[in-house]
Amino acid sequence: MTLAKKQGMNPYLPSWEYIPDGEPYVFDGRVYIYGSHDRFNGHVFCLNDYVSWSAPAEDLSDWRYEGVIYHSTDDPLNPEGSMCLYAPDVTVGPDGRYYLYYVLDKLPIVSVAVCDTPCGTFSFYGHVKYADGTRLGEREGDEPQFDPGVLTEGELTYLYTGFCAPGDKSRSGAMATVIGPDMLTIREEPVFVAPSEPYSTGSGFEGHAFFEAPSIRKRGDTYYLIYSSVVMHELCYATSKHPTKNFEYQGVIVSNCDLHIGKYKPAAKPMYYGGNNHGSIVEVDGAWYIFYHRHTNGTAFSRQGCLEPIHFLEDGTIPQVEITSSGPNRGPFEGRGEYPAYLACHLFCKAEEMYTGGFGRSGAWMDSRFPKITQDGRDGDEETGYIANMTDSATAGFKYFDCRGIQRVRIKVRGYCQGFFEVKTAWDGPSLGQIPVGFTNIWTEYASDIRIPDGQQALYFTFTGNGSASLASIALE
């Protein structure tokens, strides 16, 4: 069997790496990704230390591990590592150094670390504070700080923070705070730039009020505030000509379960198991992308980074993009060779369920009825993920392939199963053929002569039968 040539894929990092909350930046011709760091089979969010990966701006398939950039124990308030490092952000200060802003999971304050390079070892620097030394988040009347996003312009740094659960009237929305050139001391006190759900009536943010994950970018003279709304699975955005006021809601950029997309399915049908979302936009080599994350392993605590190309309309708005397997490739995969099953962008079954966990849920609850992307090894093991729990009706979808002359389809399967995989080019489309599978406790290859129509195609594999199959890969010949 011929392996597919190297191409950009989702998730864009190896299947054993779990970096959600991605904040992408281009420094010196390379794209760097900063985020929190989940653990495979973790019992809570963000159990691992911060690491970074980078890729050449011209090749988003060539990611390089940059190593650990900051340990949770590097913060003087966390010497035993009992608190986790939540979603961070990075900015270049007026002095040319790189500043890492973060929040520990049990504290309401913003910590800062600094480094001379974008991916070296960061050192603790201090806490964001008022001029009198009181830390932001601890003064009477302050709302707790969470999910810092930062943008530096000249001598000033704009800090965006907040976490606002639906119905919680004690949280007003996303905050913007202006910091001076020392990267710590507040110049302008917090103001609210996007409302929480209880305060969204009449704001234009109704139904998509601020939940968490503020991230800020500037394009031309317009500031884009990207955030996770109260429905969690979507990344929304608001725009303004000013960094701390007059933000207007604009729409959804991406949903990690493809809700709202209605061109190939009912708009309200989830095509993957959604959950909290966090990410941002970036321009790379003349093209723009949205970075986001998806949920794996049937829990909320093993999240992987994905990205999709986006485009701007003449008025500066961003149409919502669908989630794909081939997003970093900026086009379909070559319709030849073998592809790992963990690239599936769609995954569902007849026992339809939208959420893997998150706010108001235990986080680890999905049972064996639901297919899930997982792995056999421990956290960090360099192995290839696969899809488990493919019981009757379970469907894995892959988008997209440039198919030309494909006459045969192969799959690798294991499990106590008896039945067949049906191959389709639409989630509800007609069958192009079937690949029978049987009981096996080792990865076994099965194949059938199935002609795939020429052109750009999505491919869906639906299991029908008894037992539970695991799917390792698909291949086109």
From TrEMBL:
Molecular function via GO: hydrolase activity, hydrolyzing O-glycosyl compounds
Record's keyword terms, sorted: Carbohydrate metabolism, Glycosidase, Hydrolase, Polysaccharide degradation, Xylan degradation
Presence of the UniProt keyword Oxidoreductase in the record: no
Family annotation (SUPFAM superfamilies): Arabinanase/levansucrase/invertase
Keyword Hydrolase: yes
Gene Ontology process terms (BP): xylan catabolic process
Top-rank lineage group of the source organism: Bacteria
Family statement drawn from the similarity comment of this UniProt entry: Belongs to the glycosyl hydrolase 43 family.
Protein name: Glycosyl hydrolases family 43
